[in-house]
Design a protein that fits this description.
The protein is mainly alpha-helical. 66% of the residues lie in helices and 7% in strands. The strands form 2 sheets. A two-stranded antiparallel sheet has the order 1-2. It has a two-stranded antiparallel sheet with strand order 3-4. α1 runs parallel beside α5, α3 packs antiparallel against α4 and α9 runs parallel beside α12. The longest helix has 31 residues.
């Protein structure tokens, strides 16, 4: 097992939490079916609409793929020239924007539900059709968290922020892609992940650079691994044996500091795929039932991730996306059997 069982389960739990939170955020941005009193149905617009909702297309994978390529090249240049400050600036901007989108959507929903959102003056803006107290609150919190992540980083703030960030990313991308585009994205990113980890190994360099800078784009759990390594020796000298045993016991007690990480792409792409499925489900089922069906895919992706972490070996790097993608497609098949 790559990490201890406790850390493996914790990483899996955070992954699933991120998927669920992301779907809750996206659920506010997609159309839903409404059952009328006469049992007829109508489609209602998103709870929090954007100014211009694009039409999902099977070619939506192309601009996303181009953006990934450009981003990867930029990071590789930063690694080559050790431009940590530029990386920190880019990281800060990414965290702030993604969190502002996520927390803004949640803030609008919460404040409107509480009935206190109307105390703020509504005005047209480019991103949302109005400014609300919930949106402003979300932006302020996002700015505060982004500052803490850069200047006072700690593992708790890091992972909690990561759990909310990907919903913001998905609210931008989901309206542009349909199930075909989402499937193509999973296949392409899986192939890329295999190449980047096992062939060119530049994904490993990127992960190490981010970890060393203290700003990793993804989930990260730092822990003490107390699993002892067995040392075999043919030396029969009692002093040497005693010394070796003492060193092994000392190492087992203190443990080795390790990082359990899961890249941002390993979180974002299954969320996009699940969100596209959820958008279809919400046109056939009431909100609660449609949302429950939507959880099948992330649960299957989580099961695939657990199997990867459980059977992978310590101190080796593995591309997670091929395994997570298989889980996503299995989840799609099960959802199709159950819901359609």
């Amino acid at each position: 097992m790559k990490h201890t069982l406790k850390i493996t389960l914790l990483l899996l739990l955070i992954f699933l939490g991120t998927q669920i939170i992301g779907l809750l955020i996206i659920n506010e941005k997609i159309p839903h079916i409404n059952i009328n009193p006469d049992n007829t149905t109508t489609v209602i617009s998103p709870n929090i609409p954007t100014a211009d909702e694009p039409e999902p297309t099977s070619m939506g994978w192309l601009p996303i793929t181009i953006a990934i390529i450009i981003s990867t090249l930029i990071i590789l240049v930063l690694i080559k020239f050790r431009k940590v400050k530029i990386w920190k600036g880019w990281y800060f901007l990414s965290v702030f924007v993604c969190l502002a989108l996520s927390l803004g959507v949640l803030g609008i929903k919460i404040f409107k539900t509480m009935g206190i959102d109307k105390i703020f003056y509504y005005a047209p803006v480019a991103i949302f059709p109005y400014i609300s107290l919930g949106l402003v609150t979300g932006v302020i919190i996002a700015l505060a968290v982004a500052i803490i992540k850069i200047f006072r980083p700690n593992i708790y703030v890091h992972n909690i922020a990561e759990m909310f960030m990907y919903g913001g990313i998905a609210t931008i991308l989901v309206p542009w892609i349909n199930l075909i585009a989402a499937s193509i994205l999973l296949i392409l990113i899986s192939i890329y992940d295999i190449y980047a980890v096992w062939q060119s190994k530049h994904m490993v360099k990127m992960a190490r650079f981010q970890t060393q800078s203290g700003l990793f784009a993804g989930l990260m759990i730092r822990y003490k691994d107390k699993r002892a390594r067995t040392t075999h020796t043919n030396d029969t000298n009692s002093y040497s044996e005693s010394k070796t045993a003492h060193e092994a016991a000392s190492k087992k007690t203190s443990g080795e500091t390790r990082n359990a990480v899961l890249g941002g792409g390993d979180i974002a792409f299954p969320l996009l795929f699940s969100a596209v499925i959820m958008r279809s489900l919400m046109l056939f089922y009431p909100v609660n039932q449609g949302f429950l069906y939507s959880l099948i895919t992330p649960l299957c992706a989580g099961a695939a991730l657990f199997l990867l972490l459980y059977y992978s070996k310590k101190d080796r790097f593995y591309p997670a996306m091929p395994f997570i993608s298989i889980g996503c497609f299995i989840g799609l098949f099960i959802t199709w059997l159950v819901a359609f």
